[in-house]
Each structure stands twice: as structure tokens, then as C-alpha cells.
Amino acid sequence: MEYRQWGRTGLKVSEVSLGTMAFGRWIDEERSIRVVDAALDAGINLIDTADVYGTGMDLGDPNRTGESETIVGRALRGRRDRVVLATKGFARVGTGVNDAGLSRYHLYRAVENSLRRLQTDYVDIYQVHQFDAATPLEETLGALDELVRQGKIRYIGCSNFAAWQIAKAHGISALRGWHRFEGVQPEYSLLSRGIERELVPFAVSEKVGILSYSPLGRGILTGKYREGEAPPADSRLAAGEKRLQLLLDSNPAYALVEAIRPLADRRGWTLAQLALAWVLSHSYISSAILGISKPEQIADLLRATVGRLSAEELADIDEASRRVGLFLP
Ligand SMILES: NC(=O)c1ccc[n+]([C@@H]2O[C@H](COP(=O)([O-])OP(=O)(O)OC[C@H]3O[C@@H](n4cnc5c(N)ncnc54)[C@H](OP(=O)(O)O)[C@@H]3O)[C@@H](O)[C@H]2O)c1
User: Fold this and answer.
1) Rounded Cα distance, 110 and 262, in Å
2) pLDDT per position in the chain (329 positions), as tens?
3) What domains can be seen in the chain, in order of their start residue?
4) Radius of gyration of the chain from Cα atoms?
5) Does residue 58 contact residue 25 with C-beta atoms inside 8 Å?
6) Residue nearest to atom 10 of ligand 1 (CA)
7) Straight-line distance from the first to the last Cα atom of the chain, in angstroms, rounded to the nearest whole number
8) Which of 14, 289, 301 should be mutated for ligand 1, with most atoms under 8 A from CB?
């Protein structure tokens, strides 16, 4: 496992990290803990979760959230200090009018609830999950700065923010002498390259760490789904993830998988390994947050991290992507 610097901070994170959106949602606690064991054994030191991760995400029930944090808390008992623990707040986690968003009111409660579920006194990286246009950034950043000073959070970051939103936040933090967003968590994969236009150049310029999510396109880039065929029984499409179905319906996903298959074959890699190696071939990515639902998937994938794609291979992939009609920034 290789470790990379997270933005301008001194924090080093494994170039592959463990996402836990599946925990308690489409995999049970026993299997989730085995996934954590396999991740730590592989040298992964960053675990990412969120207060909203849970069964309610598929059921449309905001009261059914938090299962992932609860399981992560149990899985890390006795070894909390071995990991960089990241979580998020913003999403609706109850039916009350203030049970969502980035108000000071909600953030204080969200952080306390995350700490309780995670069985820890502090979160290493606390990320606001999305931009909240209804709350002044000053209010959000002020609350986060206080939580850092109280020792409940070590670093702050954001997720799914546009470059201008982080730039505005940085301006406020600098003016007030507050802690700033040191990282951003966007989606990034061969299927989703929108960040290359503005967010990546901005992050490089301002030394903002990028923890990118869904490097395998939620599983699509492993080639396990075939057009017109039922999904494999033990897959998460079969488990009913709506965002995954949307991604399949709204992209030339199947065509892209077929277009890059020969490139994976040339390397002797699986499609999943190629997709992960592609993300890691970009030095602006601090870590790619993988979704793992079976412990053996980690060892299978990590063989890809021994190699990087050459400039020629990256150009071949761009060419294949354009050919199937994928938008490249
Ligand atoms: N900030 C945000 O808004 C946001 C949004 C989404 C995700 N995230 C974070 O990013 C993490 C990863 O997201 P993701 O799960 O969408 O990522 P992903 O890595 O693109 O997809 C993971 C899926 O790929 C399949 N897979 C993984 N390894 C495999 C292997 N070796 N062979 C075959 N299939 C394999 C699994 O499918 P099966 O389950 O079918 O086996 C797994 O569910 C989440 O857990 C979460 O922490 C953040």
C-alpha cells in the first residue's frame, strides 16, 4: 500500500480507502466487520462513513439512518487509533424541520450523534456532505471551527462542492482566521469525469486534498452488469440501489465497459483493476474511496495498485471514452 499526502496538510492517507455506505444497508454487520479486517490487513488507513448511511437511503425513510456509523464504531473497538476516521453530515436524518442541513443547530447535533455511534471522542475528517444554499457559509464554517477547537474534529472537508463554493468558503475562513476546508470528496471514475474541468485545477492550485468516491462506478466498471440481463443475485443492483440504476440508465455505461475491456486484457487485469488504476494514475487524487461488499474484493483489486497507466494508455482510454459518446471535460 502506498500513502499520499492529503492536500496541504501533514496527514498521510492510503491511496485506496474504505467506504462503508454498504454497511448495514446491503451487507450485514458480520460481513461488514470482515471487510474492515481485510482493509486494515491490506494497509488501508482511511475509513469513510456518513451519518445518513443506512437502510433508509433505499426505503426513503429518514429515521432509518446511522447503521453504517454504528457498525464502524463496533468494528474499530480497540483499534480506533489505527485509522483516519472520516464521516459526514448534512443529509436528512429525521423528520424534524432541523434534522438536515448545515445550520449550527443541526451540525452540533449531527457531530454528537456521529461520535456516539462511532464510539469515539473525535472524528479525524468531518465533511459536510453537500452545499446548503439555505444556510450562510459563515454559520457553517463558524460552527465547524468551534468543533475543531473543542477537539471533536481534527480537520474539516466538504463533499460534492463546486470549486467556487470552496473558494468562497476559503475566503471566509481566511478573513475570520478559521480552519478551512482542507479536502473535498467528489465522485470520480471513468464514468464520471466532470471534476476535471474546474474542481481538479482549483484543488491543485489551492492544495485541497481530493478523496474521490465510486472509482468503480458503483460496480458498473467491473463489467458485472450486462444490458438486458438480470443483475447477479449477490450484487448491489439486485439489492436495489437507485443511484446505481440511474447511472446505468443515463450513461453509455455498457458501451464504455466493452470499449475498455481490450485495454484491461492487454495488461492482464480485470476491468475493476483497470478502473481503479485509472483513478490512481492521477496524482491529484489523495485517495480513491472504494466500496467493498465482500472481503475478498480488496485483495483482488489491490493487485492493480502495483501499476500505473502510461500516458499512452491514458490517451487510449480517452479515445475509447469519446468513441462511445462519453462527455470529457
Ligand atoms: N460523498 C458522497 O456523496 C458519496 C457518494 C457515494 C459514495 N461515497 C463514498 O464512497 C464509497 C464508495 O462508493 P461506491 O460503493 O459507490 O464505490 P465503487 O468502488 O465505485 O463501487 C463499489 C462496488 O463495486 C463492486 N466491487 C468492488 N470490488 C469489486 C471486485 N474486486 N470485483 C467485483 N466487484 C467489485 C461491489 O459491488 P457488489 O456490491 O455488487 O459486490 C461494490 O458495491 C462509499 O462507501 C462512500 O464511503 C460518497
Assistant:
1) 46
2) 999 999 999 999 999 999 999 999 999 999 999 999 999 999 999 999 999 998 888 788 898 899 999 999 999 999 999 999 999 999 999 999 999 999 999 999 999 999 999 999 999 999 999 999 999 999 999 999 999 999 999 999 999 999 999 999 999 999 999 999 999 999 999 999 999 999 999 999 999 999 999 999 999 999 999 988 899 998 989 988 888 888 888 778 999 999 999 999 999 999 999 999 999 999 999 999 999 999 999 988 987 666 789 999 999 999 999 999 887 88
3) 3-220+280-308 (3.20.20.100)
4) 19
5) yes
6) 213
7) 30
8) 289
Q: How far is the CA of 230 from the centre of ligand 1 (A)?
A: 19
**Which of 14, 21, 47, 161, when mutated, tests ligand 1's pocket best, judged by the most ligand atoms within 8 Å of its CB?**
21
Catalytic residue among 53, 126, 155, 225: 53
Residue 189 DSSP label = B
Reply yes or no on whether 213 is catalytic. no
Asked if 123 and 153 count as a contact pair (C-beta separation under 8 A), the reply is yes
Q: Which amino acid is at 8?
A: R
Going from the C-alpha of 7 to that of each of 156, 195, 240, the distances in angstroms are 12, 16, 35
For residue 112, the CA-to-ligand 1 centroid distance in Å is 27
Distance 237 CA to ligand 1 centre (A): 11
- Note the pLDDT tens digit of each residue in 51-106: 999 888 878 889 889 999 999 999 999 999 999 999 999 999 999 999 999 999 99
Distance 292 CA to ligand 1 centre (A): 6
pLDDT tens-place string over residues 261-302:
999 999 999 999 999 999 999 999 999 999 999 999 998 898
Distance CA 5, CA 211 (A): 11
Strand partners, 288: 16, 212
